[in-house]
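Journal club prep, notes for RB
We'll compare a predicted complex against what the paper describes. Inputs for the pyridoxal-5'-phosphate case:
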Amino acid sequence: MKPHFETLAVHGAETASYEGAISFPIFQTSTYCESERGYSYSRSSNPTRNELEQTIALLEGGKFGFSFSSGLAAVSTVFSLLRAGDTAVVSEDLYGGTDRGIRQIWKGLGIRFSFADTRDLEKTERAFDDRTKLLFLETPTNPMMRVSDIRKMADLAHAHGAILCVDNTFLTPALQKPLSMGADVVVHSGTKLLAGHHDTLCGHLVTNSEQIAERFGLLQRTLGNALAPFDSWLTLRGIQTLPLRVETHCENALRAAESLEKHPRVKAVHYPFLPSHPQYELMKKQASGGGCVLSFELADDDVWPVLRGGKFIRFAESLGGTTSLITYPTTQTHASVPEKVRLSLGITPRLLRLSVGLEHSDDLLEDLEKMLAKHS
Ligand SMILES: Cc1ncc(COP(=O)(O)O)c(C=O)c1O
């Protein structure tokens, strides 16, 4: 019998055993003298990072894993596969940092970007041209929680000779496995659910393709953006409890979404495991839970008392950690996205994003009630 996901998360890839240590050791070294296992310099490879890279690959059902100093370092490495003259089709609703990189860095290197509504097969197909090498999407997206059909997107990319990269940050392999649905590359901000405790930044790439893996290896050791040993260890530790945490995150988030949906001050709630979500059926087919993030639109402009009014729900960027966080995409995560684009996507000044943590859901609902109470 193949070990279950929970068992793999606890045991990891077990790439090597050192003195029978149960907790994988931190190899806090930059260099090696005649290493028996072939290590030479930690920018190229390090045993702790290697254990993490193989563990994430195992969990995603992939052969090759790479860990980076942040999610954006991993995203940058994906776009570094492209050359001047290539086209990338990207989903129009993306994490603000990825969008910023596209508009302010990679475009300037001669790469063409075509933004598409990747919920819609025909619209996405129209964004392709004969130089398209990459289709890049988030599902669900940050922050509108739009869901794309991974299988259809993979078929579309392959029909055009391109590869599909899916940002799986919001769900992790505990809930969704894009490689099993045809994606060629999975990218993560491991800073979020994978590491899970608001104490480290990290990013990851997983692929089954030897050719892509070779390129990622070259980029990682040349761009010098690999994850440090201590952060690798923190992430390995976080991953051990990933399945348990994700289960509670999903239960708490669904309860919060249901409660917000009934609140008179809330105009709309975006959470893909709510039956009212437009891609609920698709989401149920390709993921086993809705994740920890939802966004909601207030019916009025009085956002600041809501953002700052929580006792347990703290006003801060990020998501996927133990503590519940409320974020204001307009001034925080998506501030660099042009206003016109933000508004066209639904990222209005009334949109708030909530990452539901591991507190007791009764306490969270009470907090939300308090945050939404009008005191005028
Ligand atoms: C979907 C998604 N991808 C990538 C990133 C970038 O990750 P990091 O902050 O670890 O660089 C984020 C950050 O919020 C994100 O939400």
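Talking point for the session: The CA atoms of residues 340 and 347 lie 10 Å apart.
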